Amino acid sequence: MAIYHIVLFKFKSLVPLDEVKAVSLFAFLFPLAKAQSHLTVEAVGNSAYVISDSKQACNRMLALKTNCKHPETKQEYVKTSIGGINNSPENIANGFTHAFISQFDNEDDRAYYLSEDPAHLGFVKSIGEIVDLVQVIDFTPGVF
């Protein structure tokens, strides 16, 4: 039976959004981002983020579907990989800004992904500097 793996990211913020609204801060942040050609600054929720790094991380998270290969078959084994930025109007995301859902066919595939897959382990290691908090929950539909 399928296993759904839900991952929530809270990316590190630069400054509170209220402070970003000050013209002098915008004048500081955007030239700074422009000087670092790989960086841009954008408001997300209540904070400003260096978003090229977070967008790149999100794209790499989604790419795990194709980058993760089964150790024996050498085929893709992550069945679904979707995600996006929080757009809930409920205001109870507790700072989490991005959500991802991956699907695995079985426990063995999920176990390999979590503890051995070099693509996944490399990704996890690579986001440590830009992610403030991660939350994960897995479930099998209908199993309570």
UniProtKB/TrEMBL annotation:
Domain Stress-response A/B barrel positions: 3-139
Gene3D superfamilies cross-referenced by the UniProt entry: 3.30.70.100
InterPro entries tied to this protein: Dabb, Dimeric_a/b-barrel, HS1/DABB1-like
Pfam families to which the protein is assigned, alphabetical: Dabb
Assembly information from the UniProt record: Homodimer.
Descriptive protein name: Stress-response A/B barrel domain-containing protein
